[in-house]
Amino acid sequence: MLSSQATGRPVISLVSAETLATVTGYVIAPAPARIAALTLKSHGSGNLVTWNHIHAFGPDAVTVRAPDKLQDGKEAPQPLAGHLHDPIGKRILTEAGQDLGTLQDIDFDETTGHIRRLITAGQEIPGEHLLGSGGYAVVVAAP
After folding, report:
1. Cα 72 from Cα 60, distance rounded (Å)
2. Which of 66, 71, 89, 142 suits a disulfide with 15, CB 3.0-4.6 Å?
3. Residues 6+ apart with CB under 8 A from 21
4. What is the pLDDT of residue 23?
5. Which one-letter DSSP state was computed for residue 4?
6. Distance separating alpha carbons of residues 51 and 54, to the nearest angstrom
7. How many whole angstroms separate alpha carbon 55 and alpha carbon 5?
8. What pLDDT score does 80 carry?
9. Nearest to 73 by CA among 110, 7, 27, 29
10. Neighbouring C-beta atoms of residue 121, cutoff 10 Å
11. Burial code of 73-104, b = ≥16 C-beta within 10 A, e = fewer?
């Protein structure tokens, strides 16, 4: 699934069938390359849901077991605390500093969160090349 296809999907509680939030972005982590959390525009409290709290990532919605699975990003668990940067639109740099363009999309497995590819205008970078992501750039191993 592409992150561009998933952005804007509702996040629904399985307990109440209530729409809790809307997916607005992604938090990625390396080793192994994966979606660690989703950032949200919440209808209540909580602007983050970690991948382990996602019940299912369906074609129309993301489901969580209960509303208490949404967290405040400021109180995110380690190792996410302080690393809640949505990588979409950030520069992609190799570890040697070569600029590979801007991250336009992420291809990920909606069951596991595993990142298959990082997509720029000119190329696709295998997910296993992801070394890190920060406020300025996504860093990858040289292709």
Report:
1. 24
2. 66
3. 10, 11, 40, 41, 42, 43, 44, 46, 47, 49, 70
4. 96
5. H
6. 5
7. 18
8. 55
9. 27
10. 8
11. eeebeeebeebbbbbbebebbbeeeeebeebb
d(Cα 142, Cα 76) in Å, to the nearest integer?
Answer: 31
Q: What is the distance of C-alpha 107 from the center of its chain?
A: 10
CA gap 72, 34 in Å, rounded: 21
Distance (Å, whole) CA 10 – CA 80? 22
Q: How far apart are CA 139 and CA 96, in angstroms?
A: 9
* Series of mean pLDDT values for 10-residue runs along the chain (143 residues): 95 92 93 92 84 91 86 61 76 96 97 97 95 92 85
Write the DSSP symbol of residue 82.
Answer: T
Q: Is 64 within 8 Å of 51 (Cβ atoms)?
A: no
Which residues make beta-bridge pairs with 125? Answer: 118
CA 87 to chain centre: 8
pLDDT at 71: 75
